[in-house]
Every structure is written in C-alpha cells, then in structure tokens.
TrEMBL record:
It comes from the Bacteria. This is ImmA/IrrE family metallo-endopeptidase. One of its GO terms (biological process) is regulation of DNA-templated transcription. One of its GO terms (molecular function) is core promoter sequence-specific DNA binding. It comes from Tahibacter soli. Residues 287-361 form the IrrE N-terminal-like domain. Pfam families: Peptidase_M78. InterPro entries: Antitox_HigA, IrrE_HExxH.
Amino acid sequence: MLGRHTSTLPLKVLKTNEQYEGALNELESLIVLDPSPESPEVDRLELLTVLVREYESRTFKFEPTDPVDAIEYRMSEQRLRQKDLAPYLGGKNRASEILARKRSLTLDMIRALHEALHIPLQSLVAPMRERTSADEKTEADDQFEWNEFPVSEMRRRGWFEGIASADQDNPQTLVRKFLEQVGEKSNLHPALFRRTFRGPGSTGASRYSLIAWTSRLLIRAKTLERTYPAFDRTALSASALRNLAELSTKDNGPWLAQGFLKDLGIVLLVEPGLPGTLVDGAALLSKAGHPVIGLTLRFDRVDSFWFTLFHELAHVEHHLSESEEAFIDRTDDEDGHDPVESEADLIARDTLIPRAYWRASSVSSNPTKTGILAFAKNLNIHPAIVAGRVRFESKRYDRFGELLGQGRVRTLFPEAAKGKFS
C-alpha cells in the first residue's frame, strides 16, 4: 500500500454529473494507491465502482465500453500484440485468458493498464460481457499466424475438398474451415491451439505443419470412429499385443493391424508427414475418447512400421490421458533424454521381442542371417523386426539391410501415395 486515502465524498447514490466526475477521480486515486485487501480503502473502492456503474446505467443511453473492447481498441491504436500486454496482465497465458473473456481484470491489472496504456477507468471497471462464438473466432485468429500453414501442400493432398469454392482463394478462411472440422460447432476446437506436442518428432518441426497434420488425423478419425467400440485400456493385454505382433509374419500384416486395433477401439491411420517435419508416428486422443495413432511411413520398411506402431501403443497404454496432448515421434532420433520416450522405446522393444528371449539368444551377441531367420520363426514375428533390433543394439546400420522388408509397406496403403518422401 502506497499511503492513506482521505475523502469527503459521501457514499450515496450519484445524481449529478459533478458527483459522477468526483467519484471517477476518487476511484482513480484509490486504484493508484493500491490499498491492501482488508483495508477500508478497498471497501470504499468497491462501493464507488458499484455507484459509478449504477449511474452510468441510468444516465447514459449507450452501453459502457466493455473492458476487453477498450483494451483491443488501444492495442489497435498503438499497434500492440497480445504478448505486449503480458507485463500488465501477469504473463502471456493470463493475457490470452483476459482477451478471450475467460478471466476478469483484477485491481492490479486495471491499475497497470490505466497507468501504462491510459485506458479510461470507467471502461476498465465496466462489467465484462459474456463470451460468444465471435470471441472463439477472435481467439483463434490471435493464436495463429495463418500464412505459416502449408496451404499449397494441404491443397495438393485434397484436404480442402468439400469447402465452398468461394473460400478457396482466402488462405485464412480456407485453413479455418479445415480446422473447424475437428470440432462439432462452427468454431475451432480449443485443443488445436492449446495442444502440447511432446516427443522428438516435435523438435525443430513447424508447429503449423504439426497442427495441420494432427488435425487431419482427427478429422479422418471422426468419420471412422462412429463404428468403433469404446476404448478400454485393459484391452491392450499382453496376449492381445502378442497376437498383433504375430500379424507381422503376413505380407499384408500392416493393413491387417488396422482392423485388429479397430476391434480394440483404436484408430490407426497412415498419413504422410508434411514438409518441414521429420515425423514417424503420433499418438493422440479424439474428442470421443478413442486413441488415434498416425503413421507417416517415412521409412518404407517392415521393421520401422512395427516398431513405430508399438512405440505409439506404449504411449496409448501408459502415457496418453487427455485430448490436449499429442506424442509426436521420430524413431531415428537417439539423442533424446525424455524418460517418457525412453520408456515407450523400451516397452516397444520388449513387447515385440521379450527381453528374456533376446538375452538368451545367440542373435543378441553373435547375429547371423540364419540365426535371425530362425529366431524370428521361433517367436512367430517377421525377421525384419529381429534384424532391426540387431542393428539398433549393435549400432551397425550397415548390416542385414536385406531383411528389413524395404518397400513392402507403403504399397498396402493408398494414402501413402500422396506423400512426398525424400
């Protein structure tokens, strides 16, 4: 508190403009004074605010300016961005909540905005109007730099099909309508711009490409999941995962995996990654609660498909819990130290090839082509999985390349034809 406040203005209903101006002047003095919460000055400040609002509602023929409208007007006037308000509103997140009308202004915020930006007090203390669908649109506009989305590539892949032709020449409207398909209403699904991307596949990648790609997964899943059973995490039992791994022995095993996981309530999609990203797989939750696994097939190999799939399943079973989170993975990144990713790697390796079997086998210490084929046959899995494990453990990526099933996965999925693979 800066000091004591004295006033002779009686606290009663304001009837004249002179009384109103006097109340505004005292209100300003009290806000600058910054009284302690339990002081008489705070009580007086609150009563004056009520009296001012009541006088304005009786006297003025127009609605007092909404606090957020007043802030946005000053932002436009001074060419300020949302981040410029952070020092006055307690940080970037708090500024976002205020502008989205999710949080009211505190006395400290009112004082800071009034002193720094010279926004009239009568505007800042006015009641904040309720949040509307127009505010949802404004929030999304503030969150996104629309020209950063890979519009030309999204168009080439046909992601804008079904959007009115009148919108095709406006990138912002085009991308907005694409993203709106994730939600159920004509506004953007809030998780789209709150989503946390985790994992090595999100490092250095364009956030806008990741938003577009994960949104594409959710849009496709939304259509498919209507026929899927509810997901029960206990369905990912050891026996179920073993049966899934054994599908790898079949030439069309990756395609069969989609149907197998559908019966468990899990959506498995192939969607090539967008330019600027090095992503192999992702795990996220749909709004309906179904796990959605996306695979890019960046590496067209049998071993890569199965390891990436089981890595994402490990996230689904052990880590994925909310729709505002997405695990984005790059399987050839060995420099990461994220314990969650390390755990998913370990679970995937041990599920495909049980640790006890691996340690007891000569393949782990003295691998040969004959030994790999025999070991894979004994476990009833594809030899590519064993060869991939040998290469990873030994860090000898020049060995057993002929066993990896190169070029045998993308041909099973028509969606892969739309990708640009280097």
